[in-house]
Amino acid sequence: MVSRNKKSNDSTDKGVRERLLDSAEGLFCEYGFDGASIRDIAASADCNIASVNYYFGGKEKLYQEVWRRHLMIMRDARIASINKVMSQNGGKPELEDLLRSFAESFVGSLVDEDKARCLNKLMAREWIDHHLPVNMFLNDIITPTLDAMHSALVKTCPGFDESKVLFIVLSIVGQLLHVLHVKVIFQQCEESSLPKFDLNQVIDHIVKFSIAGIRDYIEVKNE
Question: Which of 45, 53, 88, 109 is the most core-located residue (most Cβ within 10 A)?
Fold first, then answer.
């Protein structure tokens, strides 16, 4: 009987917590951190105000958890894609397979239009009015992903200058982000002469372009 009650309470707790996160995310997107009150968040989640403090310890912690839901999904997908490739061919995959898997996982976490729209709104508001801890992005997503990619690139390209790994990853990420932003701009325009984006073709181009740059750099270094 005790076990059954505990299971029921755990289920209820999870439901309340998720409702608060969903409601807070929508209100933070729409009105920003200062414009979304705890009262409004609790009312939208059909909870009492005390629930915010009970589950998150306050509005700022709730705001951080809203962000972490997005960041953890992106980080885990990217690291999982790297680990999957590195588990193939005895831990010595082709460079193209590594970059393609990383690019696909990177784009995949941002291609959902509803999620991307919400994340873009959160980013825009956070850019103007900072409320997140300074090192949150660095500690939660950038460093773990860079560490995984650093290890993978060094194993995939023996003799590669490890000090260049950061630049390689930033270059690939920069290309992918730029393409996604341009894709949104093109979609908002009615001009029929604008090209239509096929993300698979774009990823293929970025991967091959990046591989050529990496290999050329390695060859020049070894001459």
Answer: 45
Nearest to 59 by CA among 78, 92, 30, 36: 36
CATH number at residue 150: 1.10.357.10
Looking at 22, 37, 57, the residue that finishes a domain is 57
Q: What is the pLDDT along the chain (223 residues), one digit of tens a residue?
A: 334 343 444 445 559 999 999 999 999 999 999 999 999 999 999 999 999 999 999 999 999 999 998 889 889 999 999 999 999 877 778 999 999 999 999 887 666 666 777 888 888 888 888 999 989 988 988 899 999 999 998 888 877 788 888 888 899 999 988 887 777 677 667 666 666 777 888 899 999 999 998 888 776 555 5
What is the tally of structural domains in the chain? 2
Q: Range of 218's domain?
A: 64-222
The separation between the first and the last C-alpha atoms of the chain, rounded to the nearest angstrom, is: 74
Q: What is the pTM of this model?
A: 0.77
